[in-house]
Q: What sequence folds into this?
């Protein structure tokens, strides 16, 4: 079968090969025919080494498709079912799951160290234990989440990561208060989803911050009340909050520099939500006095900060009701053979989300 492979960490291009085999079938496992997958910035971060991932590997973790076969003991899905790929499944038994913090379950991360694919030259990993830039993938049963027949594969793929992450940051982690002021730094697919979440919660002012003009324009269409480049954020803070700072600031880039900017633009007693996934050697510096004196809440948001399955259901319900726009997030479409075009679209910021049709 065909799959897009990164041979070494640090390479900027993927090679689409037709000699890749999805492996790992057996008890508790599900083989999926991938139909659509989104390109998330985390895929680029894994390729560059910002996020740890063994190589060679097949990127992609935001996918949807049809079940081809199931192993012994799998009862939730059957061949022919439509599913979204969940890269962070909950085991239901660990301390985090028992506390109701299923987004902190480590079971999914354990999958990342087991090869999902094989080539004549050796084993190949799947990013985050999945690897959806392939025609087929074999995953644990918990990674195959059934979806209703009326949800298109491209919409379902987005729900698998970006939409769930951004919406959840606003709805679960921050629990944005109606009438509040919000700033979102980084307005790709995840940031736009956070904007939609803040709008759903009734935020009075939502300022979108991004260096790319097309993304700022898009943010206005998804619910932002104003959109500015980074060098105009200070002016927006003055105009919207009288210089006090925003009630909520979402950092959706994953860099210490933007996290520091987010902190400085959060009002005293306000909430900074860290959504972007950054590098382990990129340190955010805060002094002990400001931490004490400002009493700002710093809330990391992992995969939307809530129960993933419930978050999927909620996103589908909101989409059906027309309360959120998911189709509009897909600004570009390519085939698997054109995957490197999608990478360029993400790197330049010309795409909110590129859908790879497989």
A:
């Amino acid at each position: 079968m065909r799959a897009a492979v990164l041979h070494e960490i640090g390479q900027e291009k993927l090679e689409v090969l037709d000699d890749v085999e999805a492996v790992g079938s057996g008890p508790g496992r599900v083989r999926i025919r991938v139909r659509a997958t989104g390109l998330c910035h985390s895929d680029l971060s894994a390729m560059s080494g910002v996020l740890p991932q063994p190589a060679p590997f097949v990127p992609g973790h935001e996918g949807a498709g049809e079940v081809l076969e199931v192993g012994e003991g799998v009862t939730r899905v059957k061949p022919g079912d439509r599913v979204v790929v969940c890269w962070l499944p909950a085991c239901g038994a660990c301390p985090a799951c028992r506390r109701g913090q299923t987004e902190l379950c480590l079971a999914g991360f354990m999958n990342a160290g087991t090869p999902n694919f094989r080539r004549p030259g050796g084993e190949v990993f799947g990013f985050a234990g999945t690897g959806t830039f392939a025609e087929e993938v074999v995953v644990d049963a918990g990674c195959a989440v059934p979806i209703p027949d009326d949800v298109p594969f491209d919409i379902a793929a987005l729900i698998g990561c970006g939409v769930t992450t951004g919406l959840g940051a606003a709805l679960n982690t921050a629990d944005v208060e109606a009438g509040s002021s919000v700033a979102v730094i980084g307005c790709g697919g995840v940031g736009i989803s956070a904007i939609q979440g803040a709008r759903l919660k009734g935020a009075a002012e939502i300022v979108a911050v991004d260096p790319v003009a097309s993304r700022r324009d898009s943010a206005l269409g998804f619910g932002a009340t104003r959109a500015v480049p980074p060098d105009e954020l200070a002016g927006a803070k003055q105009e919207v909050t009288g210089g006090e700072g925003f009630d909520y600031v979402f950092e959706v880039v994953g860099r210490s520099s933007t996290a520091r900017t987010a902190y400085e633009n959060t009002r005293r007693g306000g909430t900074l939500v860290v959504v972007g996934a950054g590098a382990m050697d990129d340190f955010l510096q805060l002094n002990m006095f400001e931490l004490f004196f400002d009493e700002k809440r710093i809330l990391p948001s992992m995969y939307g900060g809530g129960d993933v399955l419930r978050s999927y259901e909620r996103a589908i319900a909101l989409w059906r009701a027309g309360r959120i726009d998911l189709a509009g997030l897909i600004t570009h479409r390519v085939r698997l053979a054109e995957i490197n075009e999608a990478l360029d679209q993400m790197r330049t910021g010309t795409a909110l989300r590129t859908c790879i049709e497989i």
Notes: The two ends are 11 Å apart (CA to CA). DSSP finds twelve helices and 19 strands in the chain. Residues 195 and 223 are 6 Å apart (CA to CA).
